[in-house]
Design a protein that fits this description.
The complex is a heterotrimer of chains A (about 280), B (about 325) and C (about 425). Chain A has about 280 residues and is mostly helical. In chain A, about 75% of the residues lie in helices and about 0% in strands. Chain A has a domain at about 70-240: Orthogonal Bundle (MetI-like fold), CATH 1.10.3720.10. In chain B, helix 2 (about 85-90) crosses helix 12 (about 300-325) and helix 11 runs antiparallel to helix 12. The chains are: A mainly alpha (about 280), B mainly alpha (about 325), C alpha/beta (about 425).
Chain lengths: ~280, ~325, ~425
Amino acid sequence: MSSAPTAPPRSFLWARAVFLTLLSGFVLVPVFVMVSSSLKPLQDVSGRFRWLPSGLTIRPYFDIWDTVPLARYFANSVVVAGVATVLSVIIAIFAAYAVSRYDFPGKRVFTVTVLSTQMFPGILFLLPLFLIYVNIGNATGIALYGSRGGLILTYLTFSLPFSIWMLIGYFASIPRALDEAAAVDGCGPVATLFRIVIPAAIPGIVAVAVYAFMTAWGEVLFASIMTDDTTRTLSVGLQGYATQNDVYWNQVMAASLTVSVPIVAGFLLLQRYLVAGLTAGAVK
Amino acid sequence: MATATQDPTLPGRRTARPGGAGSRRTRRRSPRLRRASLPYLLLLPAALLELLVHLVPMLTGILASFKELTQFYIRDWSAAPWRGLENYRVSVDLDAPVGQDLLNSFFVTCVFSVLAVGMCWLLGTAAAIFMQENFRGRGLLRAVFLTPYALPVYAAAITWAFMFQRDNGMVNHVLVDQLGLLDERPFWLLGDNSFVALAVVAIWKTWPFAFLIVMAALQNIPKELYEAAAIDGAGIWQQIRKITMPSLHPINRVLVLVLFLWTFNDFNTPYILFGDSAPAPANLISIHIYQSSFVTWNFGTGSAMSVLLLLFLLVVTAGYLLVTSRGRKTADV
Amino acid sequence: MQKLRVAAAVLALGTLAACGSGSTGAGETGKGTPKTLTYWASNQGPSIEADKEILTPELKKFEQQTGIKVELEVVPWADLLNRILAATTSGRGPDVLNIGNTWSTSLQATGALLPWDAAAFGKIGGKDRFVDSALASAGAEGQDPAAVPLYSMAYALYYHKKAFADAGIDKPPATWDELVAAGKKLSTGGKWGLGVEGSNLSNNIHQVFVLAKQHGADFFDASGKPAFTSDGAVAAVKQYIDFMATDKIVAPGNAEYAQNQSLQDFAKGDTAMILWQTAATTLESHGMKPEEWGVAPVPVPSGAPGTGQNINSMVAGINLAVFKNSDNLDGALQFVKFMTGDEEQKILNKTYGSIPPVKTAQQDAAFNTPDLAVLRDTLATSAAALPRVPEESQFETAVGTAVKELFADAAQGREITTELVKERLTKAQQQMPTK
């Protein structure tokens, strides 16, 4: 959007071409390896590396569904990551709005404490958290362990601190003049949040949502002990292609690609929100 | 955390305008009280969740660090014997392998984090700036760049592990067989190279996050600034230096911190690459703690190590926030 | 008004979060009614789904016999120990579970597993039904076992018949000298004599444990204290590493193997020998025909496997344990009885290619094939249980890592001296808990 009236100089165009080409190579080579390996029979995958499959087969794409219950894991992951994201973003928006637009006692304690929770290695509070969930279960009958709900609660809290911090940043960069204009029009603070701040911060909110989603999507450690066969998520479930006796490389790759296609497609759809800039928000 | 981190620039501090300029109508119940409680209400869900899922378990972990929690006692944590500072003593005893390994692992993690954060930030920012202006194929390229981030961590790491195999991997195939750069096939998952492998994988799967965040932040820079600069005769490189980079400052401040804490505590990548015994040059602290607690059934010592780690990160973060806030006039993040 | 609405929204959200977590998946553990049991099985077959298909009809049979419904979960190996740890810590776990038999003593120490005293054994048909060596791997010495054996396995030497014929070797090696000599003949032209899994800690432990026995050494002394640095232990580890470092019959690339790549190499004919437990199913899945490989006892110094210094395998296998917290102990015992009954033992061990640890079931002709007879005889006469100390898992990690690092050194051309081996083992020993 840096629409300089004059065309960018040659040096810029060259630098851009070279940089983006190299970077695409770095990004795409592993993706290519995944694609080509997913199309090889198992014997070929575990042999010497070849760029192109010698015997092309799409069998892995059928086998993946029988080796592990991939469809169920995928559904679990979508539900867990999706719900955790929605809740996390909503809660983070409220918190970030409070911090960025108000001054109140305890604000610093809140922000610092929230941030500090990100410093504790997950490994350590894994068991305590499990214990707490079990105790909540024993006391109230709400089964948090082994359920999607427990995982949702965990993941939404994982992404919350950074979501809050990042949104504070985005909110702070929205000119205060907009708020004031809204106030003059008679908007209360909540209306200002919904009518001014959120629309103006859409790119940031989408970025935060993507972050929250991916945090939940990829988490391995907590999912490994907090789920059982019916609630297992993909990131753990994919490990099922590595059994005690064998690693089904071709199926791992095929399954990873298959489950990633909807996610990449989702990213593509979200793109226009990412670039819908401040101007779009400010008009409303 | 009662750690009184003095941070004069916490976001929005300057903006003390409670309630907006909204003394419009007089209300029946004290509007002042309601106005004062609004921010707390907004924070409540976040605070409750953090308390339940982070703070209480964290405090439990801190308590555990003073206990002897081996296989003999894990069944009932409250009945486990207190060990005082013994777990800490073992962790920092540099004359014994446990302390030495922890120290080594700590240094490895520091170098790894600085390297990974630096590269992720650099790649992400450069890519976002280069792609700020529209060109043909930009949308496609953006999707391509986000792909590593969209893959489940397990898929990404296992693919790299596959490529890093010594005999059958793609990396050695290219380096040795095709380019002939090396005569001997190096190991990538063992020995000193394992650090390189780890860093490459971490950067590969994390940089798109930086890209995403910076890309979003770039949208908030008012066009007028560029137009004004262009009228003043600033070229594109100068615009990037004078306008783009300073405007990114607030978001960078958070982004770098996020990336740092994230890579510093990264568990998934080394765990999937190396299993539960990572080679010493790539023995990140989270893996090390996992090994010292889960694999060897000693949660007390593992907790003590985690608490030390927490203290270190608190200090670093506090220092970082202080340093990055100095010398800037605006208090907005 | 608007502020109130926000407050309401926020509160609603809070409850939503709580509801969302509560409503899903509740009641899935199925405990509470004595008519159900939860069973965690480890992954034994080619995949988790395959295991479910194998076990479900058997569990149905049990339900028909007893009216007890068994909720099966096949837990992947990557998660199993952590799941068990979490279950132990919280008391919230399955009623019956699979454990790798080498974990038995460590888990026994937690006190979470039901001890198998005479009364408990009485309910499943008596202690005498089980093979001694298998039973010996189910807990600490002098204590009631913490589990009962379910599937047994032993190590054997698998050799590639065609590679042997091509190299003019007419019979499998019976001593290590013969193995090294054969290996040298076989290691030519990009092919190698022996395959190892250098980065697989457990496998490393299994191998050096046996070699140490053959050197008359143990990794723990009689009082249960670590003794990693005895001359015998050092010599054993060095001997194992030397297959790669000095004898050069192991491909350097094997140093990073941890996912059974050595089986793939063997199936492809790139290595001629492997020391493995029940490899048949996997080899077949890699396209080998059973007549293409031979099975022989793992070499021993004297050439004749037996007890003492002629031990040639650890007792490998899976044990079945009952969680003390189970609210259906009686049903759990019935289930163990069912699983260790002759009929199920035959069916399941046949399917998984393992050996029944139950004497009567072992007599079935299916376990008398040339392959399985070797494993069965090894188990009966020349196998020993890994150290039965609560610190067994620390031992596996510390010494297994030392062996892994030594392999990495050897693969990168570093000289492996006795001093270096001793230094690594000393470090490993210092990492053990002191008390």
